[in-house]
Amino acid sequence: MSLLELRDVCKTFHAFGREPVKALRDINLTVEEGTITGLVGESGSGKTTIIKSIMGLEKPTSGTITYDGINIPEAKGDELRRVRREVQFVFQDPTSSLNPRMTVEKLVGEGLLVHKLETDRSRRRARVADLLTMVGLSDRDLDRHPRSFSGGQRQRIAIARALAIGPKLLICDEPVSALDVSVQAQVLNLLQDMQEELGFTVLFIAHDLAVVRQICSRVAVIQSGQIVEEGPSETVLANPTHPYTQALLRAVPNPNPTVARQRAQERLAEEKVA
Amino acid sequence: MNTIMTALPEQTDTRPEVDALLSVRNLTIDAGTKPDPIRLVQDFSLDMFPGDRVALVGESGSGKSVTARSIMRLDPDFRLSGSVRFQGQDLLKLSDRQMVRVRGHKIGMVFQDPMGALNPLITIGEQVMEPLRIAGVSRSEAERRAKDVLDELGVVNAAARMKAYPHEFSGGMRQRVVLAMALISNPSLIIADEPTTALDVRVQEQVLTLMDKVSKERGLAVLLITHDLGTVAGFTDRVAVMYSGRKVDEATVDNLFEHPAHPYTQGLLQAVPRIDQTVPRLLTIAGAPPHPAARPAGCAFNPRCPKAFDLCRQEVPELRPAPGGGVVACHHYPEAEAEAEAEAGEEQGA
């Protein structure tokens, strides 16, 4: 069953005295319930516009965005509150997505308070402590501020914050690309574990195809506002049919010196021909 | 005898040190105010020969960028000790004025963020010509050479585009401009600090191919600072791994990837998701790197190391020859040291 569905979504930005920019052109994207779906594209491809449209921050020029039967651009009142509660986000840079003046307790517990899921302060504190343990932090961290954590720990806080109110859909916008290599794997494993344990659905936006291959069951590739290829990530990444996907895959640096050197040779040869 | 013994572990190949283009010895970098300075880098040594391509790999806070910047003496607030010999001259002993003639002339530098490295109010052409103009080259000559180097780097219609401003260029094009600035005075060494990190994969590929081509054609030595092991694999001959301010591992690129010696290097290689294979679960390195002001006793990696034993928590391991060649700073390789000692002893006897 699909949880999130984008149908023929178009978005055109008009700027005074310039050609209008068609940021999204007939986007069709389905996120099946209980899966991790990847959305891959370079900067300027329209990934952010898609996220903003799902958040209700941008209204599509045409087309529908349906979350569990609710058309997001038209939603108001109770429906909108339900979307706000059930769809949560994890952003790229935890340093800027977490308010530096709030303690971890407040950051993670904010959603519980806003959505009136746990209004009692001490019970809320206990819930937050549980969440912290779940993401690999501890109840000793409750009164600390984001600045006293490392990048990877901050991203764990951001994940705990997103999971606090039991979302059905988690939208992760490049959640590991700002992290160090040794920490990136920890956060990816955490996301994967949480998803298996709690069964929520994930839309995973990334530019790193190796990361997508590791954690996504399906993947959609977006280029200049259009989805050019979509399917199970094993199939798409093993046998890409669209030239753009092929080019993206070829550009991924391979951490095998023999293969990588061969690729470098090929590229130099191509360069000479061109 | 003793001098040989101390020199040996630092050296990763047999080429004589006198031929080295860049020879860094025991570079130690302190920052912060006097009573409690923070030691950012400790006893860093590295040799680069003409045309060498060496990667300096590490995570944020490992000291890799600080090391690169200190070779050029870019941060006046850091206190440096040790020596940085470039073409036989110790850069740490030069006056600030003499240093200006090295920076951008004999050693070129490429930074991560091309927008931050370019002045938005000055045309591309002026910025590319700047090193030559400082060196006293005439405007017409400088313009000609700027056009040539931009042509070489694949900037189409270079003469016209020299009049453009940085914001009119895309990320990849800006990085070409920064590369042109680094190359225009024909340096023999380029220090590139994460030159492709801020770029999209395909642009990353283009910029790397370009650096590959230019460095091969010009016989240019490149010191590539990066955290991306994928980039390292295709571009460099030799890799030095830094952890918490020290060089902990150095090997040829093939050896490093096939038989990583240091447990940290092993962990890094396993933690990277690969496009050519999937695993049920990524292997991780538990914990996070220490703050430079609060390193654990002994080996800085010991709290995260699956193989740590008592000695690791007490003593900082010295760099020693690693079994597969190269050097490694890990208490798990005392055998290699013993072997090397035996060999040195034999040679002495013969």
From TrEMBL, chain A:
Gene3D superfamilies: P-loop containing nucleotide triphosphate hydrolases (3.40.50.300). CDD domains: ABC_NikE_OppD_transporters (cd03257). GO terms for biological process: peptide transport; transmembrane transport. Residues 4-249 form the ABC transporter domain. GO terms for molecular function: ATP binding; ATP hydrolysis activity. It comes from the Bacteria. It holds the Pfam family ABC_tran. The keyword Transmembrane does not apply. Keywords: ATP-binding, Nucleotide-binding, Transport. PANTHER family: D,D-DIPEPTIDE TRANSPORT ATP-BINDING PROTEIN DDPF-RELATED (PTHR43776:SF7), TRANSPORT ATP-BINDING PROTEIN (PTHR43776). Belongs to the ABC transporter superfamily. This is ABC transporter ATP-binding protein. It comes from Arthrobacter terricola. The lineage of its organism: Bacteria, Bacillati, Actinomycetota, Actinomycetes, Micrococcales.
